[in-house]
Design brief:
Elements: E1 12-14, E2 21-23, E3 27-30, H1 35-40, E4 52-55, E5 60-62, E6 69-71, E7 80-82, E8 84-90, H2 99-102, E9 106-113, E10 116-117, H3 118-127, H4 132-135, E11 141-143, E12 147-148, H5 149-152, E13 159-164, E14 167-173, H6 181-191, E15 199-201, E16 209-210, E17 216-221, E18 225-231
Parallel strand pairs: 3-15, 5-11, 6-18
Antiparallel strand pairs: 1-2, 3-4, 7-10, 7-16, 8-9, 8-15, 9-12, 13-14, 13-17, 17-18
The structure holds manganese (II) ion.
Length: 232
């Protein structure tokens, strides 16, 4: 047997401090997981169960603190927003995972950007349509290297921040997550079968905003790592 066309390459993310790669199965994202961000998007953070959407693994744009990876301004949008997020990388999965067991499945952590065509997402919300065109487009998930848990432990607090052209736009702390990572994994695994290779973007703090061509975005999560991209 042979593939009838050339098979696409397997998506993967660099592992910090080594030549190894973390292979990616799925990319899950949590919506509105910081109260201040939920409020800035016009929602009541106290009354919502966690909800999820996915990006395609080939939407990932590998970057690093010094790489200055190019993020091409995407088509069909005039309002592309940055969302800086802590990302968890799973080594294993399953279904109906108990919160107490959830962190055993985390291989490492990284820093990602959930880039969003906010105008297309807004139109989709209004029409009751899926978010895919707003969220899951080419290069919409810049991500820095994955840092193994053996190096970072499981962070429960730490500044999460994003500067645009040297000016701080987002400045939160992962201790402000409405749904903690164990709770996210428990909820997600009730809906989907999680697997090793899954990435979870855990949500963004307040301060999301539009980017322009030429902007340099630098951000990070204290104790985990940093990311830097340039909008081209
Ligand atoms: Mn997000």
């Amino acid at each position: 047997m042979a593939f009838v066309i050339a098979p696409p390459s397997a998506p993967a993310v660099a592992v910090a401090g080594s030549d190894d790669l973390f292979p990616v199965h799925r990319v899950y994202c949590v919506g509105r997981n910081y109260a201040d961000h939920a409020r800035e998007m016009g929602h009541d953070p106290d009354r919502e169960a966690p909800f999820f959407f996915q990006k395609s693994p080939d939407n990932l744009l590998p970057s690093g603190p010094e790489d200055d990876a190019a993020f091409p301004y995407p088509p069909k949008s005039e309002n592309v927003h940055h969302e800086i997020e802590l990302v968890a990388a799973l080594s294993g999965g399953g279904t109906d995972i108990a919160p107490a067991k959830a962190l055993d499945l985390v291989w490492g952590y990284g820093v990602g950007l959930d880039m969003t065509r906010r105008d297309l997402q807004g139109e989709a919300k209004k029409a009751g349509r899926p978010w895919d065109s707003g969220k899951a487009f080419e290069n919409s998930a810049p991500i820095g290297p994955i840092h193994p848990v053996t190096a970072t432990g499981h962070p429960s607090e730490g500044r999460v921040w994003l500067d645009v052209n040297g000016e701080t736009r987002q400045d939160g702390n992962i201790n402000q997550l409405i749904w903690s990572l164990p709770e996210i994994i428990a909820h997600l695994s009730g809906l989907f079968e999680l697997k090793g290779g899954d990435l979870i973007f855990t949500g963004t703090p307040a301060g999301v905003g539009a980017v322009e061509r030429g902007d340099v975005l630098e951000g990070g999560v204290e104790g985990i790592g940093e990311i830097k991209i340039k909008v081209t």
